[in-house]
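Hi,

Apologies if this is the wrong queue. I'm a grad student, and the batch job for glucose-6-phosphate 1-epimerase from Phaseolus vulgaris produced an output file that my downstream script rejects. I'm not sure whether the problem is my script or the file. Here is the sequence I used:
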Amino acid sequence: MSRQTVYVQHCSGVNGLEKIILREVRGFSAEIYLYGGQVISWKNDLGEELLFVSSKASFKPPNSIRGGIPICFPQFSIHGSLQQHGFARNRFWALDPNPPPFPTTSTNRAFIDLILRHSEDDAKNWPHRYEFRLRIALGPAGDLLMTSRIRNTNTDGKSFTFTFAYNTYFSVTDISEVRIEGLETLDYLDNLKNRERFTEQGDAITFESEVDKVYLRTPTKIAIIDHERKRTFVLRKDGLPDAVVWNPWDKKAKTISDLGDGEYKHMLCVQAACIENPITLKPGEEWKGRQEISPVPSSYCSGQLDPRKVLFTY
Ligand code: TA6
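Support response: The file is valid. Your script probably expects a header line. Output copied below for reference.
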């Protein structure tokens, strides 16, 4: 396929929504909707889907799309004056005609630059001017790389403050057989207990009931181990100190209208985030937050977090 690889393809997706397909030479691919600036699919070289998208996902604006990687900005959760998880996931993003230069050491050509700017409507609830630039790329080994740059473009001299998350829905075979490594012994805020602060006890995180926790100041590498599929996702992050882990389990799942019966078993949200200490930007200042997710083979084990390469060479 290599000579004919179309690295970036523009086409229309569900309900005619505009989407972009990225492909890299080894066969990995990703699909991104301009609606939400949202990654909706990430497939490996065997064509296996690595992200979860609900069979009941609504691809009808202004609903957000249940699955893939929604962007939570300028507010994570309901804590603040805005709607749950802010508005970036419910807006139409544009192709960025003037992306900033990226330091790159590879010949990678499978990438797209998107931009979201303030609108009159949003200014009623969040009275700020900003430019949110998002680069989404497939690395040479198929890794999915996302870089967000948010700049305060206020002309009234005012700072603004925001929280943020890449709300990644990983596809897992059976949530009961999944383990997360990298969050043991950390402090977390429990969303199921009014955001009370606790310290994680014991070994790796496993799942047997509803979980909705914000782990604080985590390591930059987290591993999500899918025993049944013999696959591990390694999540690396930069500029995003926190990590949210969410699975609604059976009872809560039934209250979520755009989640199919039993689908909670096949999804796990692990979100690179900045929540505990919100970011404040003065006019002219820019913030950057990156995540890189890579599937690694089943032979992976603790302490061997992806020895193949250096982080963030793109
Ligand atoms: O990411 C955790 C969380 O805030 C949960 O509390 C849960 O509500 C989830 O997000 C999904 O939110 P959504 O608005 O997409 O239904």
